[in-house]
# Entry
Amino acid sequence: MSLRSMFAGVVKTYDFLNRIITFGLDNMWRKSCAKECTSGNVVLDLCCGTGDLALYIAEYATPETQVVGLDFNKGMLWKALNKRAMAGRKHGKIYNVSFILADAAHLPFKEGCFDRIGISFSFLNLIYKNPLAKAYLKAVLRILDTRGKFVCVETSQPGFRPLRILYHLYLRKVVSFIGGLVSGRKDAYRYLGRSAINFPPGEKIVEMLLSTGFRKALFQPMTFGAVGLYEGIK
Ligand SMILES: C[S@@+](CC[C@H](N)C(=O)[O-])C[C@H]1O[C@@H](n2cnc3c(N)ncnc32)[C@H](O)[C@@H]1O
# Structure
C-alpha cells in the first residue's frame, strides 16, 4: 500500500487519534517546533497534514510572516482550511497561511525562497525505508535561504533502555490496536509503530543532515526522548 492511500484512509480520525495516542501531548511538541520557525518572513510547513504546525507558526510569528503548508493529501488540506477559518473566527483575525497540494518530491518553489522550513511528524514518512530520502533532504536544502533553518519534530528513541523497551511495546501493541480500532486502518497504525520503532536515534539524524549539506545540525530530546526536535542550519 502506498503512503498516499494510507493517509487518505485515516483523514477522518487523524486528529482525534493523535490526541489519544500521545496522551494529548502532540500539540505541545508541535508548538516547540513552531517557536523555532517564527523568525522568518516566509515559512514552509512541509507535509502539513491538517495544518496545526502552520497555524501555530502563524500565531507566534509577526502578522507579516507568510506561512505556506504543503501536503499531497487533499482530505488533510480540506481539514487544514477549515481549521484556518475556525481559528480566524475564534481570534478575530485573518491567518496569513496558504495551503498547497503538492508532493515533497517535486517542491514547486524557487531556490532559497524560505527562511524557515518546519516539519512535524512527517519526517519519518520521508525517510523510513524511503528510496527518495536523500532527494527530499536535498530538495529542502535547495528551497531554504542561505542561513535558513530546517526544524523537525519527530519521534525519537528514549536513551534509557527499559523506557525504550516499554515505548516500543506501546508503539507495537497499543498504537496499532487503538489506531486500527478507531480508524479502521490497522495497516496504517502498524506502519506508524514499525517506522517509529526503527527511526534512527537523534545522532544519526544529525549525521544525515550534515551529510546532506547543512552547515550545522543539532538534536534535542523531549519527553524522555520519546520525541526529538531536530534542527539543520544551511
Ligand atoms: C503523520 S502526518 C503528519 C501531518 C502533520 N504535519 C502533523 O503534524 O500532524 C504525515 C503527512 O505527510 C503527508 N505526506 C507524506 N508524504 C508526503 C509527500 N511525499 N509529499 C507531501 N506530503 C506528504 C501525508 O499526506 C500526511 O498528511
Summary: Strands lie at 42-46, 66-71, 97-101, 114-120, 144-155, 216-222, 227-233. Residues 3, 7, 30, 47-49, 52-53, 71-73, 76, 103-105, 120-122, 125 surround S-adenosylmethionine (CB under 6 Å). The radius of gyration is 17 Å. Residues 3-233 form a domain with the Rossmann fold fold (CATH 3.40.50.150).
